[in-house]
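Hi support team,

I've been running sequence recovery on a batch of backbones for a student project. Most finish fine, but this one hangs at about 90% for roughly twenty minutes before it completes. I'm not sure whether the input is malformed or the queue is just slow. I've pasted the structure tokens below so you can try to reproduce it. Let me know if you need the job ID as well.

Thanks,
M.K.
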């Protein structure tokens, strides 16, 4: 079942999505990590990964194409990985350049966060970026993420040493920012106390 935002729909990944994903991963501007040489992710590599996925009721990751509602175009991809049920997950986002500055990335991020906190009941969501990526840092901050760890001079990009940044958003912070949504899960501290 697709997840619907204001500007976007997040749907299941398909075979035909792999070509665009490989293109975005090979573009140094959209893949956003430090590289001395352009990466060499081929469409075939992505197809192989896609076809190797096995059915599971216990999904610990998902990559969701971001569909722009108005045009029907795939505007990028958003994912969650390392899911620890009822505890945490990490998210990642890549947006195609024609959709930069259109709020598509923010809407996709907010749509996925609503799912992770409301449907999966997570306590905290993490993401990783670097200090030379102000677009990613700013987008994360718009959703309430804060820098929780900094690994100094861990990325070399465009002749500069940059810091790796871990950013996190807790369940309490998310619901404080979104009073329009009710947090229906009991507080785990109350559960431990037997309240």
């Amino acid at each position: 079942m697709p997840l619907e935002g204001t500007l976007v729909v997040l749907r299941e990944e398909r075979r035909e999505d792999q070509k665009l994903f490989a293109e975005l991963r090979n573009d140094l501007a959209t893949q956003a990590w430090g590289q001395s040489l352009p990466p060499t992710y081929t469409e075939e590599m992505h197809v192989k990964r896609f076809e190797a996925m096995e059915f599971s009721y216990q999904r610990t990751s998902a990559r969701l194409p971001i569909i722009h509602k108005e045009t029907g175009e795939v505007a990028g991809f958003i994912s969650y990985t390392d899911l620890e049920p009822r505890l945490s997950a990490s998210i990642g986002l890549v947006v195609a350049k024609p959709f930069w500055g259109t709020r598509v990335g923010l809407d996709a991020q907010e749509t996925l966060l609503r799912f992770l906190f409301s449907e999966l009941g997570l306590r905290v969501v993490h993401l990783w970026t670097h200090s030379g990526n102000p677009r990613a840092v700013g987008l994360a901050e718009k959703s309430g993420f804060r820098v929780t760890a900094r690994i100094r001079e861990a990325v070399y990009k465009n002749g500069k040493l940059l810091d790796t940044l871990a950013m996190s958003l807790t369940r309490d912070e998310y619901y404080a920012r979104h009073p329009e949504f009710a947090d229906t899960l009991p507080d785990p501290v109350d559960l431990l106390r037997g309240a």
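--
Follow-up from support: It reproduced on our side and the slowdown came from queue contention, not your input. The mean pLDDT is 90. No action needed from you.
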